[in-house]
Design goal:
Elements: E1 3-7, E2 12-18, E3 36-42, E4 54-64, E5 71-82, H1 85-112, H2 119-132
Parallel strand pairs: 3-5
Antiparallel strand pairs: 1-2, 1-3, 4-5
Helix pairs in contact: 1-2
Length: 141
């Protein structure tokens, strides 16, 4: 937790993660510009979400103290936002492609080390390479 310096007229955070609000004892500086406010930064816990179908968006809410507008809070917020279907499909395709590449590397490593591979591994290696290269796989082959 730290402090942020906020300029009210421009709605701009000027400084973040400051150790104190300006003075060594933690009090507000004498003669603080009335256009400025020191905000206590508050972190929040990220909500549970499924990264396969959602992403997190960070935001923040600002509240000035009703009794002293030179102070307030700046609270971090999180929102789980559903991914578009096209993004979900792309991520799934990327995961499948990564799995295929991993399998090809593992089998190729066996071949390089002159280790025996089974007929099933040979078939899968060729099948993965065909899929990777975008060719159609005929299951009867």
């Amino acid at each position: 937790m730290g402090w942020a310096l906020y300029q009210k007229s421009t709605s701009t955070i000027l400084k973040r993660r400051q150790a104190t609000p300006g003075t060594a004892d933690g009090s507000l500086p004498v003669g603080l510009d009335p256009d400025l406010a020191w905000l206590v930064e508050q972190e929040s816990v990220q909500p549970q979400y499924d990264p396969a179908t959602h992403r997190l968006e960070r935001g923040e809410t600002l509240a000035l103290d009703q009794n002293d507008s030179r102070t307030g809070t700046l609270t971090e917020t999180w929102t789980a936002v559903a991914l578009p279907q096209a993004e979900i499909v792309r991520r799934n395709d990327d995961a499948i492609a990564a799995g295929i590449e991993r399998q090809i590397r593992q089998t190729a490593k066996k071949l390089k080390n002159a280790e025996a591979i089974t007929n099933e591994e040979t078939y899968q290696l060729l099948r993965y390479m065909v899929i990777r290269d975008g060719l159609q796989v005929d299951e009867d082959v």
